[in-house]
Amino acid sequence: MKKIGMILGGGLFLVVILFAWWLFSRPERGTVGSVSTQFRWLGPNDKIVIDGFDDPKVQGVACHISRAQTGGMKGELGVAEDTSDVSIACRQIGPIKILEKLKDGERVFDEKRSLVFKKLQVVRFFDRERNVLVYVAYSDRVIAGSPKNSISTVPIMGWPSP
Fold it and tell me: What does the pLDDT look like over 120-159, one tens digit per residue?
């Protein structure tokens, strides 16, 4: 019995470590605000939520993403599947400095949209010919994703000195 407790305790410790790594290794983001779109008698209302985040490999670029969030009891319990509706806007907010080598299609933001199968993602491309960063927001599923998407571009330009 003591051995089983040690195994479970070690497993719990590993889960806590992995959760902490997942939580703190993600790009800094925060909810900017939300607006209610549908009243629910039980649980929170349906809403549109706006999050802001910085590109982890490109200093000087910030993005804002808006997405639908299902309320009600399913939403409160975290088992609702949110729609694939998403909008994104990315802007240069300072001098652009590429911190690491960029890979086309690299994920810069992700978020679960259902308990298991659906995920909202933002990926980045670098259009070298036009010197523009391209951000695409979309939703995917294990079996079939959605063609709904949103795109934003950020031209890499000089930034005036103060």
Answer: 889 999 999 999 999 999 887 655 667 888 999 999 988 8
Longest distance between any two alpha carbons in the chain, whole Å:
67
Task: Write the DSSP symbol of residue 143.
Answer: S
Q: Is the dihedral of CA 120, 93, 91, 57 positive or negative?
A: negative
State pTM to two decimals. 0.72
Domain ranges of the chain: 29-155
Q: Can you tell me the mean pLDDT for 31-53?
A: 87
The confidence score (pLDDT) of residue 114 equals 59
What's the CA gap between 100 and 49, in Å, rounded?
30
3-state SS track over 6-60: HHHHHHHHHHHHHHHHHHHCCCCEEEEEEEEEECCCCCCCEEEEEEEEECCCEEE
Are residues 29 and 53 in contact, defined by beta-carbon separation less than 8 angstroms? yes
